[in-house]
Design brief:
about 240 residues; six-stranded antiparallel β-sheet; Phosphatase 2c, domain 1; alpha+beta; 7 helices; five-stranded antiparallel β-sheet
Length: about 240
């Protein structure tokens, strides 16, 4: 397992009365996760909480060694959380239609595996450059992919929050599974769209470039989103590969 430092923070924002985001960081076991709930009333909070609790359950007793074992844990986390959210919604009519986005990153010696569903995102900050690793599962992203609108138009599109894929909304779930190599000093950012809707990638890169530890960088990211309006819940988690 790669040694990592990690820090995360979630803020309700300036326009919402409740926080439907949830996250977990566990540097000792080498994983982190972010979820953003959907479904109205308190159902979004329930879905994101179930997701994070399930991720924690899956990783808590595991002792993975190989990349394939880490990949299987990520698969299991999404499969089981999807089953639990679907089941909870079926048992409680007030929670029908709830679901959440999901990011799960796990780090092993020299590499990482990442699971992704929805429009929360994971970025890699390496040698001063920021790269988005994930691709949003949204109707607007599909229009961008088809060349119907530009990425700039997508940022303000009225349908930008309509998801094409989410955890817990269907019995079958397709998960994007991504793997890659890590380098000492890499910083991975897992975040909800409350950050990326408010803060452009260039400003995120600049925030990750400031001197200081991960907490200072996370605080800067949250502050930028709040200063831009804080229309949604904001969650940012950073994982740094220790040199």
């Amino acid at each position: 397992m790669s040694e990592i430092n990690s820090f995360g923070k979630s803020d309700t924002g300036l326009r919402r009365s409740n926080n439907e985001d949830a996250f977990v960081v566990d540097p000792d076991r080498g994983y982190a996760s972010v979820a953003d709930g959907m479904g109205g009333q308190a159902a979004g909070e329930v879905a994101s909480r179930i997701f994070i609790e399930t991720v924690t359950d899956v990783f808590s007793d595991a002792r993975p060694v190989s990349e394939e074992e880490y990949l299987q844990l990520v698969r299991d986390a999404f499969r089981l959380s999807n089953e639990r959210i679907v089941s909870a919604a079926a048992e409680n009519p007030q929670q029908r239609g709830m679901g959440c986005t999901g990011e799960v990153a796990a780090f092993f010696s020299g590499g990482y595996v990442l699971g992704h569903v929805g429009d929360s995102r994971t970025y890699l900050f390496r040698a001063g450059e920021l790269r988005q690793i994930t691709l949003d599962h949204s109707l607007v992203q599909e229009q961008v992919d088809q060349g119907l609108i530009t990425p700039a138009e997508a940022r303000t599109h009225s349908l930008r929050h309509v998801l094409s894929r989410a955890v817990g909304t269907r019995e079958e779930l397709a998960v994007d599974l991504i793997r890659g190599k890590t380098m000492p000093g890499d910083i991975f950012l897992l975040c909800s769209d409350g950050l990326t809707d408010m803060v452009e990638d260039g400003a995120i890169r600049d925030a990750l470039s400031i001197p200081g530890g991960l907490q200072r960088k996370v605080d800067r990211l949250i502050s930028l989103a709040l200063s831009a309006g804080g229309y949604d819940n904001i969650t940012a988690v950073l994982c740094e590969i220790i040199p």
